Amino acid sequence: MANIKEIAKLANVSVATVSRVLNNHPYVSEEKRRLVNQVMKELDYTPNRTAIDLIRGKTNTIGVILPYSDHPCFDKIVNGITKEAFAHDYVTTLLPTNYDPAIEITYFELLKMKKIDGLICHLPRE
C-alpha cells in the first residue's frame, strides 16, 4: 500500500504538498494538485483514516447507544440524529446494547479511547 512519501516522490513534490492536496489546502497550484491526484489514482491510494483522525484530534463520528435498533421509535430518533450529524459533517455509528451493561461499558470505552467524538445514549433502567 502506498504512502504519502511514495506519492510525493513519484509526483516530484514535497510530502507537505501531498498533505495539502489531501486536505484541500488552497495554497497548491492546480498543476501540482492534478499531478498528485493522478499519482494517487494510479497507485489506488486511500488515505489512512485513523492517521488523519489522530492528526486532526477528532473522528467526526458520533455513537448512538440504544438498547436495540428494530423499534419504530428508535428508528425515528436515529434518523433525526443522523440527519443533523450529516449537516455538520459527522457520521453516526449505531451501538445496540440489548440492555447488557457490559456492552454499554465497552461503548463508553470507545469515547475514552477517542475512537468517537461523542455519545448519545438511551439507557432506560427499571
Automatic annotation (TrEMBL):
SUPFAM superfamilies attached to this UniProt entry: lambda repressor-like DNA-binding domains (SSF47413), Periplasmic binding protein-like I (SSF53822)
Which of UniProt's keywords are assigned here? DNA-binding, Transcription, Transcription regulation
Q: Which CDD domains match?
A: HTH_LacI
Tell me where the signal peptide lies: none
Molecular function terms in GO for this entry?
Answer: DNA-binding transcription factor activity; transcription cis-regulatory region binding
The chain positions of domain HTH lacI-type read: 2-56
Q: Which InterPro entries match?
A: HTH_LacI (IPR000843), Lambda_DNA-bd_dom_sf (IPR010982), Peripla_BP/Lac1_sug-bd_dom (IPR001761), Peripla_BP_I (IPR028082)
Q: PROSITE patterns from the entry?
A: HTH_LACI_1, HTH_LACI_2
* PANTHER family given in the database record: CATABOLITE CONTROL PROTEIN B (PTHR30146:SF105), LACI-RELATED TRANSCRIPTIONAL REPRESSOR (PTHR30146)
Name of the protein described by the UniProt record: Catabolite control protein B
